[in-house]
Design a protein that fits this description.
Blueprint lengths: L8 E7 L3 E9 L1 E3 L2 E5 L17 E6 L2 E12 L3 E11 L8
Antiparallel strand pairs: 1-2, 1-5, 3-4, 4-7, 5-6, 6-7
Length: 97
């Protein structure tokens, strides 16, 4: 798959006691153990994205829905990197509006 054909990777973020924090937040890299967002050339910076340890993350990969919790977050001037824990696939009939 070429760079121009790359699919859009997004995550949904929920915070306990708050509810849905982000819907379809674009990420540059998405792995089973975490995700990264790069900010090169962008006005917005990593500290503008409100993510906290303990936030619940959900995403689709190959038609399957996964869920995990943020275990650690690191921010530099150009990159936000989050490490996930308790990653599990959700049942096919899982629904999160």
């Amino acid at each position: 798959m070429s760079q121009s054909e790359r699919r859009l990777l997004t995550i949904d973020v929920e915070r306990r006691g708050y509810g849905r924090r982000y819907t379809s937040l674009p990420v540059d890299e998405l792995r089973q153990d975490g995700f990264s967002i790069r900010f090169e050339g962008a006005y917005i910076r990593p500290h503008h994205i409100d993510l906290l340890e303990g936030d619940t993350i959900r995403w689709r990969d190959g038609g399957r829905l996964f869920q995990g919790r943020i275990a650690a977050i690191s921010r530099t001037e150009q990159i936000l990197d989050a490490r996930l824990t308790d990653v599990t696939p959700l049942p096919p009939d899982a629904f999160f509006p």
